[in-house]
Amino acid sequence: MDVKELRKEHKPLTEFRYELGQAEKGYTNRSLYINLSDNRIESKPVTDMMKEKFTGGKGFGLWYLWNAVKPETKWNDPENEIVISSGPLGGITQYPGSGKSLVVTISPLTGLVIDSNVGGYFGPLLKFSGWDALEVQGKADKDVIIFIDGNEGTIRIEETPIPEKDGHILGEMLTEMYADSEEDKRNISVVTAGSAGEHTLIGLLNFTFYDVRRKVVRLKQAGRGGIGTVFKDKRIKAIVVRFRGVKGDLNHPSDISSINKAGIRLHKEICKFDAVQNRMRQIGTANIIEVMDEYDLLPVHNYKFGSHSDTYKIASNVFIDKYITQGKPDGCWYGCSLSCAKAADNFEIKTGPYKGHLVTVDGPEYENAAGLGANCGIFDPQYILESNFYCDTYGIDTISFGTITAFAMECYENGIINKEITGGLELNFGNAEAAIELLHQMSRGEGFGLVAGQGVRKMKKLFVEKYGADPKFLQDIGMEQKGLEYSEYLPKESLAQQGGYGLTNKGPQHDEAWLIFMDMVNNQIPTFEDKAEALHYFPMFRTWFGLNGLCKLPWNDIIPESNSSASEPAKIPEHVQNYVDLFNGVTGKSIDKEELILQSERVYNFQRVFNIRMGYGKRENDKIPYRSAGPVTVEEYESRQERYDQQLRELLGYNPEGKKTEEKLDVLRKYREDQYEKLVDAVYARRGWNNNGIPKLDTLQKLGIDFPEIVGVVKPYL
């Protein structure tokens, strides 16, 4: 059936009409609330308090979710919400990386608030349609589509008979269905989950944008924490927004000239330096695959090792030369000259339901190549691209899938699980055929895919209770923390990065603090105080991007000439000033770089209190698996024996000569675990938290978020 005809089969459940309005100084001053349990649609005011205390984006998401749920709320309870918001700078077209949306919900994996950022057109088009945020609560009885027409001023909830589930099919189909013409497709953005969201806890959301040069719908992912699983549980088939008429002044900024000037500065830097710095316009984030290998930071075999002799087979030049289309303006929002959203066009799929299809694969990102490839011991670029495609279209978080599969492979090789348990899958490191079949099983809800799709934390519990595995060993090698799987960097030799993973609010994702090079390579933060300061500033600075609808890559993936003489080069101070100028130019406010950090501190501490309210957010929840801090096995120690023996001599005054590896492992472990605890003490003190990780009352007062309901959460722990 033609998709236009299929749309006629949709059953309208409710329609809401609204006055169009427009953004003023970055805000529309209202948000859209939808309850699927009773098909209720409402407009809610965005108050001055919200803008002052929570800024936008992730901040708005946290505030709305806080008011929607109770301490006992679970991810699949009807009152759990999915909140999408871009922030006051979201949608500007003058500065690269301003098309981000932030998605917030209670995570199926962690039980905590999860936030995930995503590109594509949805967030800006939602704002230009008249809404600073979208809250979706409740559960539908049958599959529904939410359609927001930002030009007509209508919102509809439609029951849909569409059987298709996978992201690339739904993205194409619904773009065609809701667009009036080929030209109109660029005005459509679709949010979908995928088939795996019904069977796993690691479902993601795909956000589309229409690539007018390729004439295909592209997918960007809000990947972390199982947001797509929540989406599917609510019986949402898709959320579709349409808005025609994007142009550079739709935020109605206070001073557009300051925005233009900042944008011109960065566009010039990208043009001049990208080809010799990080090659984002050539290969995107995959430019660092071989760099991570060189510095022993590439996760290999479930984070046991940091490099491999076969890494050259998946190095960035392999994807550039053979797979990634060159010369395309691959920005995922208008005006982004960094153009890092790379794609492999006309890629032929070899397995699964789309075998023989020629598809456009978005990526690979570094995380995909490292997690799907090196961490599982699979150095095959075609496998990486194929599994990348299937993760996206099935709606599976590629980071979690890579880390889960690597964990399962190590368990298999240690005899903790076997072919009988895996249903015949030979999950040895390097077995691409078994890994891709595991992925297909997750989509179908079959076999060992049902087990792996529950995530590393639940797998550890099952393997101990059902198969008699050693819980201590599994805790050491199971690379999850707070229930979220680690992203794809090996932090063994960077204490600051161990904290950058362990001391996050949502779990070990590098978007809060990526300090490996500052700490391990450049030795710029040698003392505990230095590390604590870095673990204060950089998580707060990076949080700010998520409050404003910005991508972090233009901040430090292009380095201006002025940075060579900067007093704090790791902060890229010229670019920090750009962000200050952008915020003031849009909102008409007059913040400085210190106020920028203060904005993030409010939201960051509020999220910590939110975690405490949900039963987490304390010191015990900030512990990390030992493999992220040091070698667990004899094999790991002996692979770097010279390094570790030298550390024992120089740092502990311990003579390793003649000692068994097991003894040396124990001595090194005691030292590294003690170092991590001392780091935690220093970071808590710098953040204004007590020794249990609870924000102090004077910290909340200083930040102006000492609301009675917030103080009431922390008081019992102070």
From TrEMBL:
<keyword id="KW-0411">Iron-sulfur</keyword>
<protein>
    <submittedName>
        <fullName>Aldehyde:ferredoxin oxidoreductase</fullName>
        <ecNumber>1.2.7.5</ecNumber>
    </submittedName>
</protein>
<feature type="domain" description="Aldehyde ferredoxin oxidoreductase N-terminal">
    <location>
        <begin position="27"/>
        <end position="245"/>
    </location>
</feature>
<dbReference type="InterPro" id="IPR013984">
    <property type="entry name" value="Ald_Fedxn_OxRdtase_dom2"/>
</dbReference>
<dbReference type="InterPro" id="IPR051919">
    <property type="entry name" value="W-dependent_AOR"/>
</dbReference>
<dbReference type="InterPro" id="IPR036503">
    <property type="entry name" value="Ald_Fedxn_OxRdtase_N_sf"/>
</dbReference>
<dbReference type="GO" id="GO:0033726">
    <property type="term" value="F:aldehyde ferredoxin oxidoreductase activity"/>
</dbReference>
<comment type="similarity">
    <text>Belongs to the AOR/FOR family.</text>
</comment>
<dbReference type="Pfam" id="PF01314">
    <property type="entry name" value="AFOR_C"/>
</dbReference>
<keyword id="KW-0004">4Fe-4S</keyword>
<dbReference type="InterPro" id="IPR013985">
    <property type="entry name" value="Ald_Fedxn_OxRdtase_dom3"/>
</dbReference>
<keyword id="KW-0408">Iron</keyword>
<keyword id="KW-0479">Metal-binding</keyword>
<dbReference type="GO" id="GO:0046872">
    <property type="term" value="F:metal ion binding"/>
</dbReference>
<dbReference type="GO" id="GO:0051539">
    <property type="term" value="F:4 iron, 4 sulfur cluster binding"/>
</dbReference>
<dbReference type="Pfam" id="PF02730">
    <property type="entry name" value="AFOR_N"/>
</dbReference>
<dbReference type="InterPro" id="IPR001203">
    <property type="entry name" value="OxRdtase_Ald_Fedxn_C"/>
</dbReference>
<dbReference type="InterPro" id="IPR013983">
    <property type="entry name" value="Ald_Fedxn_OxRdtase_N"/>
</dbReference>
<keyword id="KW-0560">Oxidoreductase</keyword>
<dbReference type="GO" id="GO:0009055">
    <property type="term" value="F:electron transfer activity"/>
</dbReference>
<dbReference type="InterPro" id="IPR036021">
    <property type="entry name" value="Tungsten_al_ferr_oxy-like_C"/>
</dbReference>
